[in-house]
Every structure is written in structure tokens, then in C-alpha cells.
Amino acid sequence: MIRRLLATVPVLIGISFISFALIYLSGDPTDFLLPVNTPEETRRAFRAAQGLDQPFLVQFLDFLAKAITGDFGTSLRFQQSAGSLVWERLGATGELALAAMVIALAIGIPGGTIAAYRYGSVTDRAVRAISLLGQAVPNFYLGVVAVIVCAVWLRILPSGGRGTVEQLILPAFTLGFGLVALIARVTRSCMLDALRQDYIRTARAKGLGENRVVWKHALRNAFIPVLTIIGLQFGLLLNGVVVTEIVLSWPGIGRLAIQSIYARDFPVVQTIVFLSAFTFVMLNLMVDLLYVVLDPRISYK
Amino acid sequence: MRGSLRAFAIGFAASLLAFAAVAANAQSVPRNRTLVVAQNFDPQSLWPNGTTASTNLNPGGAIVEPLFWVNPRTSQLEPLLATAFKMDSPTAYRVELRKGVSFSNGEPMNADALVHTLKVFVDGAVTPAYALYSTPLDRFEKIDDHTVVIHTKNPYPAMALVLTQIHVIPPAYWQQVGHAKFAQQPVGTGPFKLTEWVKDDRVVMDRNPNYWGTAPKGVERVIWKPVPDDTARAVGLETGEYDIAASLAVGAAPRIQGQPNLQLVSVDSYRVFNMILSTLPKHQSPLLDKRVRYAINHAIDSDAIVKNLFFGKARVLQGQLLRKQQLGFDPDIKGYAFDPEKAKALLREAGFPNGFDIDFKIPSGRYAQDREVCEAIAGMLAKVGIRTKIVALEGGEFLRQLRVQELGPLSFVGLAPPDDPHFQLSQYRSDWRYTFIQSAELDRLIDEGVKETDVAKRGALYRQASRLLHEEAPTVPLFLGVDFYGASSRVKGLLPTGDQRIYLYGLSLE
Questions:
Q1: Prediction ipTM score
Q2: Sequence ranges of chain B with CATH classification 3.40.190.10
Q3: How near does any CA of chain B get to the CA of A278, in Å?
């Protein structure tokens, strides 16, 4: 367990290094931060004040040394602590990701299970068709279409922003739709497999009701691959978050990330990359631990 | 698993409650007395002198006011915190402050406050974004409680423009909190006071009950929303979520115009779009021959570009980079007429009967329709035999190449220098970072113009400079940008400026 935790340290440092190097190579932040006709002396002084005139490795090690103490530096664009800029927006992104996941689970798991149970039926075909659609439609397009239909034509939901439950629906749906599809598909195929197993026949033979057989015996066994997918996808949700947050004006870190990349705001990009990597690694760790709960045969001892 | 689902559910319910609380709080001012403005970005800073970005200045300027402003309805300099200014000598400018004005924290707005503001303004470490304006300022002298004399290092005829950029801050509060915190919690003399700023979601400001002037009628509260997506801004305007939507995409304009409860406001931008045709020896190319530069000028049909890509709303430039409203605009200069045959003849004369191949550097996604405009240009050039290879550059790389003169020999730019002819023309001084011409005569005109305080003489110098640029043709002046704003018909008197400033002065809500 401790070994696993320690193994994440080089991963985080590696990721920080790569992202730092990429954004360093991509250009000089003063191009964006100061008007194009700013005198060169002012520009030089600004670079020196922000430590941007230092060699690459010095800048990186400086960042790392401070990051360990929880200080991610000062945003070049906002002149505020990068950590607090990200922190202020983390709640919004967490809420959106969670809501998307809840939608995905609430629809995907029952959908996949029923499809598998009624293999070949109309329901099955419908679930498969929706899955295909969900995975094929990119979420920037889905978001725009959803806004036009729900906000402009039907006028039942607001077009963007955060604050009310209505405002959460469209972004959560946009972000969760692709996931619904994936979870339904994986659940369906795992359930198909599980329902054919001997223990299901045994369960039925001992006279258990169909509901118990399907939702308890079969689903619990089929759940491990689904859980893996959930763990991985939670991390990948951050991808979708960037687009969803822009299209639906959601004040989260995805939007901050993309704007900071365009503005070459190193400290903020670094903080977000670092935090995302950390979240991703931790989620996978959690998933591994949940396996033990679900399947007593798995043990890390 | 059930346990973690329950945790999800509890967390979810808790955040719903949190929304409800926020929503209840925001409803204390009725919607019809609230002005909701959608801009592309959340401000980085609400201190107007923190950056030159209009998305910061628009909300920040409603709280912290400048000395003067240029009213876009009249194009005249109008007083705000100052009532008048006059030139004591070419290097001394006397500013009279308005009497009886206080900051919203109670500090008096007086000569001490202005002198303090000016000291902050010229401090390059704190105010780097305004260095271009502040470099000629030298020292500040308090005459009496409401009079300050600004001494400059040399004569500075663009002083009026500088005075519109100086936003007066309360000295005691500034010293107490420092500039970083001030940018987050500004205090000023303006018609509105900051109530709440939820990062990347909304800036909420409420009416300042002690405002010295006439506050916008019918507006109790202003909410500034960052809506980065172009479509989303237009959609939110249609659904009535926003009362003003800034920087609409060109394509959204006709749709807004067609709706009875909406209005479309199009504003000539200060952004001057032109092609760079480098005359510098380090950019070896056929463009070093003046005839080739003339040929390119004759090959481009700016009218067609404006008509087809901007619904005819952008303004075609008349063979010069200055706008009609600017000092030094020369009505006698006519642009090179669109004439592909003449262009071909000029190329033949210059020794390129079969044309030539050349790279054409363009920004991608930086300006409205940039890619489309450049493809149209490339097509027009191809018709006279100039085969271009388009090199599209990401915004940051584009600015870097501009700054280090790598955009030569041929590229497309749209720059919006501050609204004084000097800032436009000085971009062509021989030693400027991104000039593409070197001419001692032009340098002389620029240097004399910046010091000439006689308006008529100054105008004559700039007309001469414009003629020289026309004759040497280091550019193809194309068109002025156009900014589209959509607004609800409840909003009266909306007129943003060409630098995308939305001033609330003179605006009202029905």
C-alpha cells in the first residue's frame, strides 16, 4: 500500500516536468501579458520580476521546491496565487464531474443490465443504438445542440452559467452522455458473460427471485470491469470538462486550464496538471481498493 | 459500493442546497433593474490600470473612474473626475479636479489622491501595461487641493489621451491593501460598487448611493458574466439571460438583427488590418522591389473582402493606416485601385513575368475571420501570378514573430495601438521592434510630430508621413475591424468604443 503511494511520486514529478517543458517551449508569456507595443525595458523588467529570465531547469526546480510546500507560485496573468485560482474553481469542476458520473451510472448500469438480460430484444437494440450515438457524438457538438434545443427552442433550461440546479442539467448531461454509452456497453457485455455462468444457474436452482439473481449475483460479478472503467473515465472527464465548461460557461478548472495555456501562464497550467495527475492517480488507487470490497478473492497482502 | 453511492448522493444534495442559497441571495435586486453583460472573459483584475484588456476595463472602469473620457457619441473629450486641463507650457499640463467627490470608502478625491495615482501610474514595476503612455511623464506638482500640474520630459501633445487612461485610486486604501488586493477588491468614485466576484462566473456590482454624477437610469445592479463561447453569448442574449453580449461572431450578426426585441450595434474598431510587405534587406524577397509592392496593392480587392466576409460592415482603408477621425488623416490619398492587369504589368516590369512563390504568414483564430480573409487574399494574389504558401501561426507564436521582426517578408496583421496618430505611425520608426521599413525622413516626421503641440502643424506632419508610407508601400492597408454587440431592446444608448470599451455613462435600462 505504502509502496503504491510512493510509486506515484515519480509519476507526478515526471508529469510536471513534461508539461513544464512543453509550455516553456511554446513561447514567452510577456507577449500576452503586456500590450504588443510595450517598451523593451519594461518587458525585460517584468520578465526579471517574474523569474522568467532564469534558465529552464532553475525555473522548474524552483517550481518543484515550492510545490512540495503547497505553494504553486503566482499566476502571471492574474497576479494571484495559482493554487487559490485553481482552488476557487475546483468545486465547480468537481460538482460537474460528479453530476455527470451520477447521470452516467444511473442510466448506464440499469440500461446495460436490462439490455443484457433481454438480449436481442428491442430494449437491447435501443440501448446499443444510444451507446453508439453517445460514443460517436463529440461533446462540443452535443453541448451546442443541447443548448439550441433546450434553451433556444424549448426555453426550458438556461444556456449556461452556474448557480441553480437547472444550470447544472445541460453541462452534466453533455459531459455524462458519452459516459452513459460507455458504461452501458461495458455493463451489457460483462452481464452477458456473467449471466451464462454456473453460479447463476445455481442461484436460480435454489429458487431465488429473478431480481436478486440479476441485480445481486450477476451484477456484482460483472461490476469489476465497470469499476475500472469508472475509475479511468473519471480522470478522462477532465478532457471533456474543458469543452463543456467553455460551451456552457461553467466556471471550472477546464476553462481556466485552456485560457492559461493560451496565455502561457506557466504556474496555473502547472498547478492544474499537477492536481489532475494527482486526482487521476488517487482515483485509480481507490478503484484498486474497491476491488477488494467487491471481490473477496482479490487481496493486496 | 452502496456506501459510496450514498456519499455521492449526500454530496450532490449538499451542493444543490448551496446553489439554492446563492440563488436566493442574487435575487435581492429585481431582474428588470439588473443589467447583465456577457463578455468573453472574466476580468483578471478590476484595477483599470492593471491591464489594457477591455474585459477588465469595462467592469473595473464602472468602479474606478478616469479623469476624462472620449464620448463615442460626440468623439469629444468629456470631463469625469477632472473638470478641465490646459497646457501651461509644452511640458506642463494643469489638471483641475472636480470638487466634492469622495471615494466610496469615504476618502476624498483630491490633488493628493491624483498625485498618488500618477506615481503608481508611472511605476513600471506595478503598471507595466501602461508604460507606452507613461514614459514621457516626469513629475507631479500639487498646486492646491484640486489642482495638479503634470510635468513631462518633453512636449507631449497626446496628453489628452493619457488623461483618459489615468484611473484615480484612493491613496489610504491602496497603501493599506497593496495593488494585488486592490485588483480584487477595488474602491473608486464610480457609479457602482463591487458587491461580489465569483471567479469565472460573475462580477456583481451595485449602485453607489453617493455617486457624484448621473448614474445609468434604471440600473440598480450590473452583473458581468464571462461567456467564452461565441455561440453561447449570442444564444444567452436571445433567451434573455444577458442584456448585452459583447464580441459577437460575424455570422451571428444577421440573426440578432432580425429579432424584434434585440438590437445589433456595430462599432468601427480601432484595429487596423493590413498586410506587411517588408522593405528590410534582411527579408530578401521580390518585395524589396517597390514595383512588386505596388503590384500587390493593386492585386487586392478590399471591397470584396469586406462585402463577402463582413456583410459590408467593416470600413475599407483609404490607402493609409490612419482613420478618418484621426488627426493627420489625408483625404487626398487614394488607395491603389484594384487592378489585376496593372499588377501583372508591374510584375513583368520588375522582372517576374511568371510571378513568384512566397510564404504568407497569418495568425490563426486571433482575429475574426482571419483565416478566411487570408485565403481570399491568397486567391487574389494567385490571380496575378504570386503563388503564396499560407503559414498559419498560433496566437502566441504570431505575436513573438511580430515582436522580433520575423513576420517578413509577407504577412497579415491587425494591430490596435492607442488612439493617437503617433502610436500608429511610430510603429514604422526605423528602430521600432516590428517596423518593416527604414526611412530617415519618416523618422524625422514621427519625431517632430510627437513633440508638436500646435494641432494644425502636427496634423500636417502626419499627413506627410502618411503620404510617404503610401509612396513606399511597406504595407497594404486593408480595412478597419468591426465589433458587433447585441443588446436587448430594453437597453438604451449602448455605444461601445473602437477599443471595445463599454462605458456605462449615458446608458439606461427601460
A1: 0.82
A2: 2-225
A3: 20
